[in-house]
Write a structure and sequence with these properties.
Elements lengths: L3 H5 L4 H8 L4 E6 L5 H15 L7 E5 L2 H15 L7 E4 H11 L11 E3 L1 H14 L9 H13 L13 H20 L1 E3 H14 L1 H10 L2 E4 L7 H10 L5 E6 L14 H9 L3 E6 L7 H11 L20 E6 L2 H17 L7 E5 L5 H10 L4 E3 L9 H14 L4 H7 L9 H14 L3 H10 L5 H20 L5 H11 L2 H6 L4 H23 L6 H14 L10 E5 L8 E6 L16 H15 L2 E10 L1 E4 L2 E4 L4 H4 L6 E4 L7 E2 L12 E2 L19 E4 L3 E9 L6 E6 L4 E5 L5 E3 L2
Parallel strand pairs: 1-7, 1-8, 2-3, 2-6, 4-5, 6-7, 9-14, 9-17, 10-12, 10-13, 11-12, 13-14
Antiparallel strand pairs: 15-16, 18-19, 20-21, 20-24, 21-22, 22-23
Helix pairs in contact: 2-3, 3-4, 5-9, 6-7, 7-9, 9-10, 9-11, 13-25, 14-15, 16-17, 16-20, 16-21, 16-24, 18-19, 19-20, 20-21, 21-23
Length: 733
């Protein structure tokens, strides 16, 4: 066994205090990059060595199986021997272990099976059909979220009152049917693991006492992410003589949308007193400039226990702040910065682009593809690979080509419209035997009544819906065509009815698809059918493989996915009001604080350099909207920032809401030689005249030199982007 000196070597004073603290109740507030994993592993090794504790008496809880494996490896390396008998794992993994050992007391079948998320959703869909409920009103995702959320709160169907609400009454009915089916089939979902094991202890006092006496030392990581049932689980297991150490950071609590309760870490000192509080504030990751900015930002949250990150490292580069014309200019700027960093010796994998919403990735992916820079979307799919995008495009594909069998199969019963597997089998058989497309086969099935009248009616209704989309496509712009398909198909309303952060993200992705269509229409397809070209481009981009796991790629990810990671270079894009903080959180103080914590998490992922960017205008649902810089930018000390204004080629007004010192000025920048024979000063708000489209007003601009473009709204109501070097615009005062 290693000596105590070896177990405490290379620890800073605060880490040493946490590792060697007297036994009892302890809360360790571990700031980002402060070495909390090291502290947890050293604490367990120290307890085993110093107090001669048995591995059998230790329960260590992590939030991922990977973290559990790493912790066990570290402890064994410190001790120099195996630690068999110790329970190390996630809440769900440990609860599963408990139920396997005591299946009879838990009223389970010995061979009970675990339902994964997909299986759970399929079961919910089946129950909706059996109960005769309309999936358009009660979507499987929504019901699944409802059941899991109730279990995370420790509630069975029998515990919930509908209070006269018809929707709640139906959801409780579904929940009850779900419980009965799972009991009958010996099925246990993930939320059930914790709820059932908690109930096991509540109803078996002797069994609870056994585990209370066994686990004298309980250590929990990421405590700020615990939910109601997890907190109750630990509270029940902990006695006055239990040595309980929880490690977490209330400033990094960002999962409230999936049930995490920041209140758990805030009330820990009250519920388990006396509690020793230790703060780990020395940061080993980021430069002093980044930490100073992050500290200043998070101080604007009122409900926090408080700490101040610091480092003995170098001051580091100033944080760059780029004000982009629009999202495309923002993406182009990031590309240039990436190229510059790679030219200085950084690997592409050292660089991460973080964003609040998945929908933001489309423009970034497009820019990276055009620049031939390998990238990988961490923890997610590329924009055109996402299910909701594929569903929307399938409606458009089938509308323009009724013989598109893959599109037909994908959407014929999505959203659900009563066309089951048996009907599809018949359609496929008819198509195969008569060498027809599924659409033509459907016509035969209906005319020859090869299915029940109800099934034929459902198929005919679907075909009529597709025809309505097809007819409505005429004389619409590309963006309007996409929006038309989303509306008529009910796809948009279907996703809007779902609850939760992920569901909101799907709606935002569909909005971004409309924006993508609008940009494609004016830029990428001068000839031919815009819709056909757009569908082809979408298919090609979906077919482009992103970088493999081990390839040297730029990393793209949402801020939620970035938790626990670190990169030398971090770009945090889209810092705009309504986007980040999200518009649904801006007026709710509780949710706004979580948005600020999310920004704090993003900033503290950066080790050497952090770049913040925002767009002064952004395309939403096909239309340009003016944006205001995020309030989070204003909460960062100006001494930490290096503001980068774009090298514009025409006059542009300063963003008044942010650059207050220039509130009554208009920034005049060098003009561009748009035409071969003259120069002109153009600015936003400038009146111009075009020989074909008539008089108009400049709304926006982007690009340089021969690539410079201006956006003009004409008196006819049309808004167009024009490449300045190819058109003649007369200044009209």
């Amino acid at each position: 066994m290693r000596t105590d000196d070896a177990l405490t070597a290379a620890l800073n004073p605060a880490q040493l205090e946490a590792v060697t603290a007297p036994l009892g109740k302890m809360l360790v507030l571990a700031g980002a990059g402060s070495g909390k994993t090291r502290v947890l592993a050293h604490r367990i090794a120290y307890v085993l060595a110093e107090y001669q504790a048995s591995p059998y008496s230790i329960l260590a809880v992590t939030f991922t199986n990977k973290a559990a494996g790493e912790m066990r490896t570290r402890i064994e390396a410190l001790l120099g021997h195996s630690i068999g008998g110790m329970w190390v794992g996630t809440f769900h993994g440990l609860a599963h272990r408990l139920l396997r050992s005591h299946w009879r007391e838990a009223k389970l079948n010995e061979h009970f099976q675990i339902l994964d998320s997909d299986d759970q959703q399929r079961l919910v869909r089946r129950l909706l059909k059996e109960l005769g409920l309309d999936e358009s009103k009660f979507t499987p995702n929504q019901v699944q979220w409802y059941i899991n959320a109730r279990k995370d709160e420790g509630l069975r169907a029998a515990h919930i009152e509908d209070n006269g609400n018809v929707v709640d009454r139906s959801l409780i009915k579904i929940y009850r049917a779900y419980e009965e089916t799972c009991e009958r089939s010996s099925l246990v979902d993930f939320a059930e693991l914790l709820l059932r094991s908690h109930e096991l202890w509540l109803s078996n006092a002797d069994l609870l006492k056994h585990y209370q006496e066994r686990f004298k030392h309980i250590l929990i990581d990421e405590f700020q992410d615990t939910n109601t049932i997890q907190y109750a689980w630990i509270s029940l297991l902990t006695r006055n003589d239990t040595n309980l150490m929880v490690v977490g950071d209330d400033d990094q609590s960002i999962y409230g949308w999936r049930g995490a309760k920041i209140e758990n870490i805030h009330q820990f000192e009250r519920d388990f007193k006396p509690v020793q509080l230790i703060r780990l504030e020395q940061n080993y990751r980021s430069t002093n400039v980044i930490l100073e900015a992050a500290n200043a930002l998070i101080r604007h949250n009122d409900t926090r226990l408080g700490k101040n990150l610091w480092t003995e490292g170098k001051p580091g580069e100033l944080i760059t702040l780029y004000s982009a014309y629009n999202e495309r200019d923002e993406a182009h700027y990031l590309i240039e910065c990436i190229r510059e960093r790679v030219s200085k010796g950084y690997a592409r994998r050292d660089i991460a682009i973080l964003y609040r919403s998945n929908a933001q990735s489309r423009v970034l992916e497009e820019a990276l593809l055009q620049a031939a820079i390998p990238y990988r979307v961490y923890g997610g799919m590329r924009f055109f690979e996402r299910a909701e995008i594929k569903n929307a495009l399938a409606y458009l594909r089938l509308a323009v080509n009724h013989d598109d069998d893959p599109a037909f199969e994908r959407i014929v019963n999505f959203p659900t419209r009563g066309i089951g597997d048996r009907s599809l089998i018949t359609l496929r058989e008819v198509a195969r035997e008569r060498q027809l497309s599924l659409w033509e086969a459907a016509k035969k099935v209906i005319s020859e009544t090869l299915l029940s009248p109800r099934a034929c009616s459902a198929i005919e209704a679907f075909m009529q819906l597709i025809d309505r989309i097809t007819i409505g496509l005429y004389e619409l712009t590309l963006a309007e065509q996409v929006e038309h398909a989303l509306t008529v198909s009910s796809l948009l309303s279907f996703y809007q009815q779902e609850r939760g952060e992920e569901a909101r993200g799907r709606v935002e992705n569909l909005d971004e698809l409309v924006s993508a269509a609008g940009q494609f229409q004016v830029e990428d397809n001068p000839q031919g059918d815009p819709l056909m070209a757009f569908l082809a481009t979408a298919a090609l981009e979906a077919g482009e493989r992103q970088g493999e796991e081990g390839q040297d790629c730029v990393q793209l990810m949402t801020l939620h996915s970035a938790k626990g990671l670190e990169f030398p270079i971090v770009f945090l894009a889209g810092l705009e009001e309504g986007l980040f903080p999200h518009f649904m959180s801006a007026t709710d103080p509780y949710r706004l604080e979580e948005e600020r914590r999310l920004c704090y998490v993003g900033m503290t992922r950066a080790k050497e350099h952090l770049c913040l960017s925002f767009a002064e205008s952004r395309r939403s649902r096909g239309a340009e909207t003016m944006q205001r810089p995020s309030r989070f930018i204003q909460e960062i000390p100006s001494s930490c920032l290096q503001e980068i204004r774009p090298r514009a080629n025409i006059m542009r007004p300063v963003n008044q809401s942010y650059y207050k010192s220039e509130a009554k000025q208009q920034q005049r920048l060098p003009t561009v030689d748009f035409y071969s024979n003259e120069q002109q000063d153009l600015h936003i708000g400038q009146g111009v005249k075009h020989k074909t489209f008539g008089r108009g007003t400049i709304l926006n601009f982007e690009g340089n030199g021969s690539h410079a473009r201006v956006q003009v709204r004409f008196e006819s109501g049309e808004t167009k982007w024009l490449v300045a070097s190819f058109v003649e615009l007369e200044v009209s005062f």
